[in-house]
Amino acid sequence: KACLQCDRRIRLLHEDLVLSAPTVADQIEMKKICDHAYVTYRETSLERNGVIPTTLYRARTEYQSEFDEAIQIMEKGRKILEKHLDAFIHDLCPNMLLNQMVMDCFSCRYRIYICPSPTGQQDCGYPLQAEEGGQAVLDCFLPWHRLLFGKPEYSYSWAPGLVVTDDSSVILNQLHMDEQGIYRCSLQEAGTIFYQITFLLN
Which of 18, 51, 86, 138 is at a distance of 20 to 30 A from 80, taking alpha carbons? Predict the structure, then answer.
């Protein structure tokens, strides 16, 4: 869970804004506005799970570039954060369990967070066509796999075989008719399955 107010550069921007107010009373009012903006940023982040540092970086960069309209930008900051959080979430497969390093919304410190699958662990199935004597490529890589904290491995299984590899793909060569059937790939580490997919080879 990451919040825009966790970024030191954003906090310094806001502190400079507060100090630029002409009177102490104005500074107090400006600080109240900043504090309220932090509350809205925190709420926006808490509605979403497992935000990676690149999301925070993109939100911060866009926020900084838009910081000319002082008070209005506070609310715009929440919308910028929301946009980047939603874009990240949209790219994730619903069949996943993401173990990653995230920014904690309240402490503004990094920690390991396990983001559960929104729909629960399920098998995604994909049909795969190949010709006898040809080859088939089983590849279960997705871009978010790079975000996993640790060193998970891909496990390919079928009756009666099993392959464990660092590579996301397995190539089946010189196929025979009796090799058609169900092949399963899972991405796991120390018994924890982060992602799994089934290939239906015909």
Answer: 18
Contact (CB, 8 A) for 202 and 129: yes
Tell me the domain boundaries of the chain.
4-113, 124-201
Q: How confident is the model at residue 130 (pLDDT cuts 50, 70, 90)?
A: very high
Interacting residues of 131 by C-beta distance below 8 A, sequence separation 6+: 175
Q: What are residue 112's phi and psi, to 5 degrees? A: -80, 130
Average pLDDT, the chain: 81
In angstroms, the CA 132 to CA 96 distance is 33
In 39-180, DSSP assigns E strands to 98-103, 110-115, 124-128, 136-139, 153-157, 162-165, 169-172
Categorize the per-residue pLDDT at 70 as very low, low, confident or very high, splitting at 50, 70 and 90. Answer: low
Residue 24 has pLDDT above 70, yes or no: yes
**For the whole model, what pTM was predicted?**
0.51
Residue 70 token pair: 């002082």
